[in-house]
Amino acid sequence: MKRLRQLHHRRHREERQEFLIDGLRLVEAALEAQAPVVQLLVATDARGGHRRLDALLRTAQARGIPVRPAARRVLEAISQVETPQAVVAVVRCVPAVLLPLLDRSDLLLLIVDRVADPGNLGTIIRTADAAAATAVVLLPGTVDVYNPKVVRATMGSLFHLPVVDHPAEPLRAALRTRGVRLLATDSTGTVEFQEADYRRPAALVVGNEAEGVHPAWREAADAVIRIPLYGRAESLNVAVAAALVLYAAARPVYTDANLRRQA
Length: 263
What we know:
This protein is an alpha/beta fold. It is built from ten helices and eleven strands. A seven-stranded parallel sheet has the order 7-6-5-10-8-11-9. A four-stranded mixed sheet has the order 1-4-2-3. Helix 3 (about 25-30) runs parallel beside helix 4 and helix 6 runs parallel beside helix 7.
């Protein structure tokens, strides 16, 4: 139990290359995505009679994943959820490889610059998945993607698309070399987000909740785009801003595809 509780801390997650997920929905998503689940802990009073849990356990056993019974108090001690569900899993971290993805002609890359709030980052990853982004890149200073609050907020999308930690300058250089269109978001941008040129390959940058995108990204951008504020609010939440620009970037591709199918 002590060893598993250590995974609440980033240092231990990085040392052991493992993280925790909690609850039926997340564990189901991990198994469906063939994520490297190391072991499951299941509440001793929950086994039998729960259709979804029983199906999950059969899948785990068929794959040779160890299933360990645990008392509720043990799950409560391991989980960071106030009311933990019946199952907790340990999953191995598998870093994605970014550079081959940058060569895709249909690239839609979301770059996250120093976003600090776990809920925001998890929502951003979930939205990037929904908008069919190619990958999400986390720049230094961004909250750990395996933070339990981030993992829960992704609602399983963490297992659907690559999420990569990467230093800023080498990434900018790689994007320039490959001719990737770079669009940074900023309240002082000169182009409204609905009018921006999102032709692929493209990369979108969203920034820190208080400071926005780092000036180096604004200077390197082909366009700095803004989201107009029609009311009295001073700014938008970064996850909301990311959703708006991701869907603006995805819409031309999927609208054209739908029109071709209908024709």
